[in-house]
Amino acid sequence: MSWLSSWRLGRSQTLDSRLLRLGRYSDAYKSAEQLKAWDRSMGHYANGDYAKSFLHFLQYLRDPVEQNIHWMQDRDGGLSFELLQGSRRVSGWLGVPFCEAVTTIGICKTIPEGLMRELLEVNDQLQFCHYGLEQDGRIILRWSSKATETDPYRLFQALRELSIQADKIDDLLVTRYAEVEPLYEPHIQEYPKAENQIRIKWLRQKAADLLSWYVRDRDLHDQYPGGLAYALLAFLYKIEFLLCPQGQLREEIENAHRAYFLESALDARTRMQRLLATIERAVARTDDELQTEFYKVVTTFGMVQPISYHRISSQIQAELNQFDAYDQGNSSVYAPYITSFVIGYGLFNYALPGLIRDLYSLYYYLEEEALLFELGMPGLRSGHSAHKDRQILIQTIRDLQQFWSDRIQVKGLRPEHLDLSSGSTLARTYLEIMISAEILEK
């Protein structure tokens, strides 16, 4: 089997574990046992057996690979638990008559007025949990509820809100307020400094290439601001997927993505300039500051939601039309970035069907093999000939199709139609083979 299909097989393969951590975590991929645990939780709750309902709920949350949650049960059926969400550890109790969960965001001996105002404003936006300040200076995020009001749906949403909010805000508060001291958790695993330097070097070099291209061909980019936006967004999505930043850089990327698509009333040049500014801010940070962004985490709740193949296919077709529009004359330089944008947009926003996610990831690996090889991951191309590389790529895609065959039905996927004669032809044909296939999830 190819390295990528081995990746999807999980821990049974002797591959670098970092292959399993590329991109945004999604909790949409549940095993059959997890789905059965959910059904049992719902049934027991409906019958008023809250202790069993809560136990099966935790079994539903437990990722068999990530080891993301642990619990202990007392004689009365009450459950004390801990779950991991990025850099935060959430502790809680599920029992009768009350349930609760809490996590510590940081420690603050003196409270700035701006921090209090920010937390109060966020409290108004939260549906299930709220921030508080303990007497010892700990900033906490807490949820509580009666057991009789904690059905599996409500419990899932409450723990998800608390966990994602805590993981998102802890690094930001430490960055914004000098008075806030971080709370380091033992489950966080630091990457070796030399390994992070590889990530930082790649980030700086890719950013420098884009920024110098903007300066060098500014008249062209002013003529085609949408074309450069494809390249800039594709780069930001690659940072998110390949480097997996955990703090301010991740927030900057999310804000840039959100602003670009929500502020459509702004002209294309203004939105392009804002994307450039995001990249400039990222590389303006020191190496020491960037080092703090990259570390290993375990996650329970994902931020991305499932999407059907039909919607994916419609998106690809729309961007292929743009590919045709750009792939002529001076604007042809932008065309390959459209495919990279499509790949990045899908991985950034959605829990893709398994085969599609692997095909998207494979394209990123083709584009950035040098980086991933430096990080210790196996090479994909042979280095001997274009013909041999093409055969390896075709076989890798066939292996992926076979691996997912028990869950995804595929007809008409023809990787032999890939054209590796140039970056542009590969970019186009890679999208074409995906929309020409019929893919149905079983």
Total E-strand runs: 13
**How helical, in percent, are the residues?**
40-55%
Computed CA radius of gyration, to the nearest angstrom = 23 Å
Q: Describe the biggest sheet?
A: 7 strands, antiparallel
Low-pLDDT runs: 1-20
Question: With helices defined by DSSP (H or I, 4 residues minimum), what is the helix count?
Answer: 17
Number of domains: 3
SSE pattern: HHHEEEEHEEHEEHHHHHHEEHHEHHHEHE
Distance between the termini: 23 Å
- Secondary structure category: alpha+beta
User: How much β-strand is present in the residues?
Assistant: 5-15%
Shape verdict = globular
Average pLDDT score: 90
How does this structure look, described?
With 442 residues, the chain is of the alpha+beta class. The chain has 3 domains: 1-24 and 304-442; 26-182, Yope Regulator, Chain: A; 192-297. Helix content is 55%, strand content 14%. Strands 1, 2, 3, 4, 5, 6 and 7 form a 7-stranded antiparallel beta sheet that branches. The protein is globular.
